[in-house]
Amino acid sequence: MTEVSSLTGRLLVATPALADPNFDRAVVLLLDHDEEGSLGVVLNRPTPVGVGDILAPWAALAGEPGVVFQGGPVSLDSALGVAVVPGSVAGEGGIPSYESGARSGGADDGVAGAPAADTAESVPAGDEPLGWRRVHGAIGLVDLEAPPELLAAVLGSLRIFAGYAGWGPGQLEDELVEGAWYVVESEPGDVSSPDPEQLWRAVLRRQRNELAMVATYPDDPSLN
Q1: Which helix (H) or strand (E) holds 68?
Q2: Which of 3, 64, 144, 179 has the most neighbouring CB atoms within 10 Å?
Q3: Strands 67-70 and 157-167
Q4: What's the CATH code of the domain at 147?
Q5: Gap between the Cα atoms of 32 and 95, Å rounded
Q6: pTM for the complete prediction?
């Protein structure tokens, strides 16, 4: 199999040509990307559901707007926590595949008696706080089965997602070739943007190339 260069920690920004309504103007943070596939969360799909309505213990740590975000079309009945720990040293942390059953950073949403996530491998040795696993730089996954008090003093921001976006082996690469996505660097502030509806334009606008012009693309392509 052709070696895949990992894009973990980068952003996928939907191009105006992407027709899938699930990803129209989407900004996806890639949490895992290798030859076995890709997994990420859409950063700019807030829902009307408050974090306190489904994960009350974590509500006080969730950034504004304090709502659950739709992370993607897959497993909408599961919750995933992504958080920034300021001052974290950049590392090479990855996350286990959902296929393995180890949902580090995830919790079954509202399912009584659901088995706790297997976190034995989710806290590597080093300076990372318990209950948080680095994905890229200061961005990491939160073990939502852990007591929030473990992270309350160190989290800079927390976002809760329902569901995620997933791609099988080679699928994302095919979409990149087809021109469905721009790949750009992420910034810690992208996870906690207080104005997520404007994130697509904001991310493009900060690029120092022709992508900055794409930010002016009208919502209705017929107006271009």
Answers
A1: strand 67-70
A2: 144
A3: parallel
A4: 3.40.1740.10
A5: 6
A6: 0.80
